[in-house]
Amino acid sequence: YEGAFVVFVVCILLILKKRGLLAGAIGTAALLPVVAYGGWSLSQGWYFLPNGMIMKTPSLNLTVGGIVKTLLGTRAWGNAWDNPHVLCLLITALLLLVLHLRRRIVWSATACALATFVGTTSLHLQYAETGWFYRYEAYLVFLGVAVIAAAVGDLHLEKPSWRVSREALPRYGAAALLFVLVARPLGLRAFRSLRDTPLATKNIYEQQYQMGLFLRTYYQDKSVAVNDIGAATFLADVRLLDFVGLGSIEPARLKRQNRYHLEQADSLARQAGAAVAIVYPRLYSIRKWHEVGQWRISDNVACYDDLVSFCALDSSAISGLIENLRAFAGELPSDVKQLGEYTER
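Now predict its structure.
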């Protein structure tokens, strides 16, 4: 769906170039899968857009103040400031675009590519998310690096020479400074991602993957309530209630109506017939539930929390959950710290 930003900017450029037919064809082709999915989703009682987009994207503020902030791009500036690697690419692309326009290279492929990157990045920063382990803006970084590299190559600078005249020193100095400004945040991002990825892989394996194996072993085809569903639903075939609202429509509707709270979560879980819930206690600590155990991972960089709780929603499920956790205890990686009632003999 982020591709819609790219398509929108490309279509605007084509219209400005008086190629409306091609713009219409590209726009229609891009809209077809969105409309097809949306129609099918509505027919199933869900929203036109995927729940992941609706729940993770800030809702539009249609008040006067909200409209003014949108027009001023306040959210885009805030996101850009929080993501210096994207901001540096954006500024560099803008400078190169101005340079191309000053040379009257208006409709060259490079100028259009630079304009596409600038427009796409601006729209993404204003209307979409960034961060969360590099994934949301990764396509912008790749697009920016590729477009800027092509733009620099298309400047047709004079043949490089080891001898630099005094007159050229300011230009070389400015170029070197620009390179450092752009390379530093990108280099830091690359270093951190290489450093954190092995830890993140270990985090997911020790928490999310083990949750999925546990559910597949003891709760296949049964109703369960979970607040982090990816690996769990990939590995296990369960009847799921997703407290976050990505995989269940009821929590999503309540959240959109600002009516979602812990009592509602408990009520929905019981309506779904879930006897067991696996949740982050920092988010879902409900007194009616009986917590029988916890798993804690170390050096967390990828999961929402390092601690996950296993709860029985009523007394009839307590003994079974304790027995299952004890039986599964030997399958857990040694670095996972097991806590709670089921560890007591």
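The CA atoms of residues 214 and 328 lie 7 Å apart.
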